[in-house]
Amino acid sequence: MLTLFQYNWQVREDWFSWCEGISEEELLKQRVGGPGSLLYTLFHIVDVEYSWLVGLQGKEEPEEPPFEHYATLQKVKQLSHEYHMEVVRPFVKAWTDDMEAQTLSETNANGETISFRHGEVMRHVIAHEIHHVGQLSVWAREIGKPPITANLINRGLFDKQ
Amino acid sequence: MLTLFQYNWQVREDWFSWCEGISEEELLKQRVGGPGSLLYTLFHIVDVEYSWLVGLQGKEEPEEPPFEHYATLQKVKQLSHEYHMEVVRPFVKAWTDDMEAQTLSETNANGETISFRHGEVMRHVIAHEIHHVGQLSVWAREIGKPPITANLINRGLFDKQ
């Protein structure tokens, strides 16, 4: 489980660096086929990862903060790093296989109780980021810039094993 | 490991069904930001999953077959199902954690030997499909059709556990 999170974190940092070379206007431009702008998509990735993991810790999942308060690259990076150090990294590092089958129960918009396995939520979070990064890669080409590689091999993720 | 493959297989089938409602011209139209057309992207996903898993079985990885021979939805589906039954599903079903650290060695284009852990290749294959499906989702909106959901939750993947 840890390796796929580490992959996402590495790819996200690469995209943050990539964004340094893009104008604010391009970063905030509304785009077709994803959550919104390039920057909002990164903000959304950061928020969704954090919120689910807060939920898995048995706490109430926070509402998404207003994007207007975070609508610069530096602020989204800062938020990502804060969430990462406070909640995300410690939780993922402490993950063990016996947590897989634990249940997270929530009330949906219709007032019904819905339940997920913790292992299901973890994989949902992993897939969520990779999916949205696929969208970033299309928009990058539309802007005329090569996207960050999505390759998981050749990132040194398995060097210590 | 199995669950993320099952997620990809389910999402792929959903995209195959989605493609039934799309004209051949749209399916084959070259698009910006991915491997090529919608249909070629699905073909590429199918080919890459199969080729790596053949490699992990200790056999020589096949060249990508000529896309011209598979350039209809029915033929790509057929190829996906053949590969799935022959190689992909049996290999993934038989996967055990002690296979993680096995090494796959290859010669790259410069004649250098490169090595990957089997666990690294498996995760690369998983991320590869999710990434390209993210690209499909942008193109779907460009065509004006809602994409297949990328949600991993609510797919029944954990119902038996």
UniProtKB/TrEMBL annotation, chains A, B:
Family annotation (InterPro entries): DinB (IPR007837), DinB/YfiT-like (IPR034660)
Residues reported in the UniProt entry to bind a divalent metal cation: H44, H128, H132
Gene3D superfamilies per record: dinb family like domain
Metal-binding keyword on record: yes
Record-level Gene Ontology MF annotations: metal ion binding
SUPFAM superfamilies linked: DinB/YfiT-like putative metalloenzymes
Keyword Metal-binding: yes
Entry keywords, A to Z: Metal-binding
Recorded family membership: Belongs to the DinB family.
Protein name: Putative damage-inducible protein DinB
